[in-house]
Design a protein that fits this description.
The structure holds 2 protein chains of 2 kinds.
Chain A: H1 8-36, H2 43-53, H3 57-74, H4 76-85, H5 87-106, H6 113-143, H7 163-187, H8 190-221, H9 227-231, H10 236-254, H11 258-280, E1 283-285, E2 295-296, H12 304-331
Antiparallel strand pairs in A: 1-2
Helix pairs in contact in A: 1-3, 1-6, 1-7, 1-11, 3-4, 3-12, 5-6, 6-7, 7-8, 7-11, 8-10, 10-11
Chain B: H1 3-18, H2 22-42, H3 45-79, H4 81-115, H5 122-151, E1 156-159, E2 166-169, H6 172-176, H7 181-210, H8 214-249, H9 251-258, E3 269-276, E4 281-288, H10 291-297, H11 307-310, H12 320-350, H13 357-365, H14 368-383, E5 388-390, E6 394-395, H15 406-437, H16 448-451
Antiparallel strand pairs in B: 1-2, 3-4, 5-6
The chains are: A mainly alpha, B mainly alpha.
């Protein structure tokens, strides 16, 4: 198929955004379940938490892998600059992701107490660290990082740990914890379900505090991340949608409608990522100082030919992926029952 | 050490360890499809028990394969940023296709394969197993295509000059079917099937030696040996094709594999030896005269070009002795696998295998064969590609991340080494535990929807 007369650079900006939003929505809940894991006290509850995400965490992580691949193919300069510039941060993220992946797989393979505790801590610490680092990376991209005229990163590892990126990191952890708790609510019953209902309120409060601080900090110190909405007031409706979706979560939880609460959380995440993308566009990485060195869809994209081929690949592959991902969630719907094949 | 050596070491370390697992997943995937297919066809409970048992082993290898694989995808950006900028337009699309076509398929249906036993009917479960196996094969296709493009680039042109230069795609299908991709794909897949089959062979032979689960072990050994022998023989054909392809597309690499410095007709094939790169000679070798010419050109008199003619400058040559040794190790182990599988197969049908304990022991150890050959073959392919990162287009030394310092790479290497050592230890421990525990007697009776008659289930 030939798409070369479309604005492919903008389309791929959106598609990469969709992949990372998919990642946040899906892996977000299993990272969140990981962050909450150590709060559950009994072995049985921990196994239920693990098996709530058991059949799907693997597929969720593929969204990150595919997002990374799409970024590499569509915007090689961004992939190269961000990954080499955030070198140690990414190595830490990879180690954290490895740990939580294998901890899920290994934990229940042996009955010893020390064995299970070791992997419980690995799972939880890996999940929290991954969420934090993803948030910090987002924060740096929003704040802007020093780039030289060739688009290479000109800062240091420590310069990535500024207060605003760290705040965004903590907010991400809070968001994923809330999201994960809502998902766990869907998958559990009985005592654990009641316990989770109690935690959810705390998670929501924690998230709303972080969210308010981050939003204020953004408006005060990162004005370029609100410029487009300021200039185009109707876009403010996305921000309103975001706030309404968040406000709707405690309401649905209160009425015992767990599914709707989880969906509200998904909508809130989509709106947040939408706002993030709108404010960034057409830039993918902001240069701060020297905005002229920023990497945008215009100066860092692959050739039209490649973007067109990739769009063909995406249009053939993605509908199939969505169809069977949905059927797999359907097969594993309902509350978790621990069986012989469980983690 | 310099960043270049460190980054190469880091990539080699993480790739070598990663490459222990996907071949097992691909090979065991095939085995699972066969076993479950046999179960659906014959309804013999032993095949159900077998499918359950090897699924557990599969789950173990798959999890580590995924975990170590994420590292690989991001390492191009972290350590080889200049390379990524240069080739992203071409190379990236193969990686993205791998994500969309392979990984989603694999990981999605894996859920049904692992946890769906009691939730779906036998046919749907079998379908999921086939899809996982297919996904694993797709992932091999795309990554081998991408890697083959680095060996024999095609379907691209260079745009821009100096620091702005980069490769851009001109023809997607030329990129996919570049001169070496199909040969190398066959070779990689045969190696993966061997890895899976010989794992099954090894476990079964162990049970027979220990006189445990004997009925299970006999059935499982039969399947393993059949696939193992078939894959090993195919590997011989595919290896020959691959080598001819190397001779045609990367003659310097072939000359290094064979330690051939002087262009000669009646070129000999060395069985083993040691290349002295200083004096440019092959020492202590035993060779078959004319064999190399014959294998490549079907004629002993056709000359084969040597390194002195092909690459007069040393900096244009790969490390010759390392290429030679890895390549010869791979070939030797490859022939060994044919021998072992052939003997096992013969005595099995003859009915006297179970009395030959030495052969059973050999079969237990045979699991190492494909792993050694896969690693050695991969090292031969990548060391032989040097000094190029994209053959003839971009040198490895030009592909580095400019902003990454040596101490950062050292930190990464230390972290990855520690984590991977731990992972490997845990993997071996759990694998051993599963094998010692053996197949579950309860699995002789399928439960849940699988236990229902065919008509009642899906």
């Amino acid at each position: 198929m030939n798409f070369e007369n479309l604005d492919l650079q903008a389309i791929w900006f959106i598609l990469v955004g969709v992949l990372f939003t998919g990642y946040a929505m899906l892996d977000g809940f299993d990272l969140g379940v990981g962050a909450l894991h150590l709060f559950t006290r009994t072995d049985e509850h921990r196994r239920i938490m693990l098996n709530a995400i058991g059949p799907v965490w693997d597929g969720n992580e593929v969204w990150l892998v595919t997002g990374g691949g799409a970024l590499f193919a569509a915007f090689p300069a961004v992939y190269a600059t961000v990954f080499s510039g955030f070198y140690l941060a990414f190595v830490l993220l990879l180690v954290a992701l490895i740990f939580r992946a294998v901890a899920i797989e290994f934990r229940s393979k042996q009955p010893m107490r020390w064995w299970r505790q070791m992997w419980d801590i690995g799972f939880s610490a890996g999940s929290i660290l991954s969420s934090l680092l993803i948030g910090v990376a987002m924060g740096n991209i929003a704040w802007g990082i020093p780039l030289d005229e060739r688009g290479e990163f000109a800062g240091t590892f420590l310069s990535l740990l500024g207060p605003y990126p760290l705040m965004l990191g903590v907010t991400t952890v809070a968001l994923f914890m809330m999201h994960g708790a809502l998902y766990a609510l869907l998958k559990t019953e009985g005592a654990l379900h009641d316990q989770l209902r109690g935690w959810i309120n705390n998670c929501i409060i924690f998230f709303i505090i972080c969210y308010a601080i981050t939003t204020m900090a953004t408006l005060l110190y990162v004005p370029h991340m609100a410029a487009r909405v300021r200039a185009t007031p109707w876009l403010f409706s996305i921000a309103i949608l975001n706030m309404l979706a968040i406000a709707n979560i405690p309401r649905e939880v209160h009425h015992g409608r767990d599914g709707r609460a989880f969906l509200s959380s998904c909508v809130a995440m989509i709106a947040l990522m939408g706002l993030f993308g709108l404010e960034m566009f057409p830039n993918l990485v902001l240069s701060n100082p020297n905005p002229a060195n920023s990497l945008s869809v215009r100066n860092s994209a692959s050739s039209t030919k490649t973007l067109s081929i990739m769009l063909t690949i995406a249009l053939t592959g993605v509908p199939v992926v969505l169809a069977y991902t949905a059927s797999i969630y359907w097969i594993f719907r309902g509350k978790v029952k621990i069986g012989r094949m469980s983690y | 050490m310099h960043v270049l050596e460190l980054s190469r070491f880091q990539f080699a370390l993480t790739a070598a360890i990663h490459y222990l697992y996907p071949p097992l997943s691909i090979g065991l995937g095939i085995m699972l499809v066969l076993i479950e297919g046999l179960w659906l066809k014959t309804k013999r409970p032993i095949y159900h028990q077998m499918a359950r048992f090897y699924t557990k082993v599969f789950a173990l290898t798959f999890a580590i394969g995924v975990a170590t694989g994420i590292v690989m995808e991001f390492e191009f950006g972290t350590n080889w940023a200049t390379y990524s900028r240069y080739v992203g337009d071409v190379f990236g699309s193969a990686l993205a296709a791998e994500g969309i076509f392979a990984f989603f398929l694999e990981s999605g249906f894996l859920a049904v394969l692992l946890f769906g036993w009691d939730k779906v009917g036998p046919k749907l479960h079998f379908f999921a197993t086939c899809m996982v196996c297919l996904g694993a094969h797709f992932s091999a296709i795309w990554i081998v295509v991408a890697n083959s493009w680095m060996q024999t680039p095609a379907g691209y042109h260079i745009v821009g000059e100096g620091l702005k230069a980069r490769a851009e795609i001109t023809d997607f299908w030329q990129l996919v079917f570049n001169p070496s991709s199909m040969d190398r794909l066959c070779h990689t897949l045969c190696g993966a099937w061997q890895a899976g089959a010989f794992l099954v062979v090894s476990v079964s032979a162990w049970y027979l030696l220990k006189r445990k689960h004997e009925e299970f072990a006999r059935s499982s050994l039969r399947i393993g040996l059949t696939v193992g022998l078939a894959a090993s023989l195919l590997q011989l054909v595919s290896g020959h094709d691959s080598a001819k392809g190397v001779a045609k597309n990367q003659p310097i690499k072939l000359a290094a594999f064979e330690g051939l410095y002087e262009t000669q007709s009646n070129a000999p094939l060395a069985l083993f030896g040691w290349v002295d790169e200083k004096s440019e000679t092959l020492r202590g070798s035993v060779s078959i005269p004319g064999m190399l010419s014959f294998l490549i050109h079907n004629n002993t008199q056709t000359p084969v070009k040597g390194l002195r003619e092909l690459a007069p400058q040393r900096e244009d040559r790969p490390p010759v002795n390392a290429s030679f040794q890895f390549y010869h190790l791979m070939v030797a182990v490859g022939f060994g696998m044919i021998l072992v599988a052939g003997m096992g197969f013969l005595y099995f049908w003859h009915g006297s295998l179970f009395e030959r304990r030495w052969l059973l022991w050999l079969l237990v150890l045979s699991v190492l064969g494909p792993q050694i050959a896969n690693q050695a073959g991969w090292f031969a392919a990548e060391v032989g590609r040097q000094p190029w990162i994209v053959y003839g287009v971009l040198r490895t030394s030009q592909g580095l991340s400019e902003v990454v310092k040596a101490n950062q790479v050292v930190a990464a290497i230390i972290l990855f080494s520690l984590v991977y050592m731990l992972l490997f230890a845990v993997f071996i421990y759990l694998l051993n535990d599963k094998i010692q525990h053996g197949p579950d007697e309860a699995d002789l009776e399928p439960s849940g929807k699988l236990g229902l008659g065919r008509r009642d289930a899906l």
